[in-house]
Amino acid sequence: MDGKDKYIVDEKMIIAVEEDIFSRNNAIADQNKTYFESKNILCLNLMSSPGSGKTTLLEETIRRIKGQIPVYVIEGDQQTSNDADRIAALEVGAYQVNTGMGCHLEADMISKALLQLDPENGAIVFIENVGNLVCPAMYDLGEAKKVVIVSTTEGDDKPLKYPYMFQEADVCIINKVDLAPYLNTDIAILRDNALKVNHNLQFFELSALRGQGMDKWCRWLLSRND
């Protein structure tokens, strides 16, 4: 066997392994989806790079809606329970998943978390994925919507540099809009770049820290679960 033949064999093996991994994940994701639908639960998968403001967004969202609908959060991080502790302090169900060296959550992790949380019928379940603009978009978790969060501090070219994340998303939240006047980021260009990748994206422009735009986001959340 020459080097070329060996490469082809190895390539086929890699493809077979990847197919097996995704097949198993997708089967469990389908089970999760059936679970959510049977209990009329809205599940959102929040994805972004580190520092985009996911946890702050969740905290402010929970403060505004928890009296109107049951809320649960599955937190994904490589290490620590810092974010889950912040969410639990708001007196809602929170479960921490530590992935170790893993850069994303997978469907079986969500399934195990749901056994612990046992969310009520008609609830909203937020999944805060590991901070990463690549891998999380590749794994179906059974969610109703994938939400990508991008902050103005990251620049306006992220949708073009990480297109798969924006292609897979249903909703794009542009966070930290209050900082835009002090940055070189143009929100209109950021939005247009995202639309070049996925013209079906729904947008929310907000500042989770300052509360700007949060009312519109929360109204949408509550209306999605009517």
Automatic annotation (TrEMBL):
Gene: hypB
Keyword Metal-binding carried by entry: yes
Protein family per UniProt: Belongs to the SIMIBI class G3E GTPase family. HypB/HupM subfamily.
Coiled-coil ranges (or none): none
Keywords: GTP-binding, Hydrolase, Metal-binding, Nickel, Nucleotide-binding, Zinc
Domain CobW/HypB/UreG nucleotide-binding: 46-204
Pfam (any one): cobW
Source organism of this protein record: Dysgonomonas termitidis
Stored InterPro entries: CobW/HypB/UreG_nucleotide-bd, Hyd_mat_HypB, P-loop_NTPase
PANTHER family recorded: HYDROGENASE MATURATION FACTOR HYPB, HYDROGENASE PROTEIN ASSEMBLY PROTEIN, NICKEL CHAPERONE
Protein name (Swiss-Prot/TrEMBL): Hydrogenase nickel incorporation protein HypB
NCBIfam families reported in the protein's UniProt record: hypB
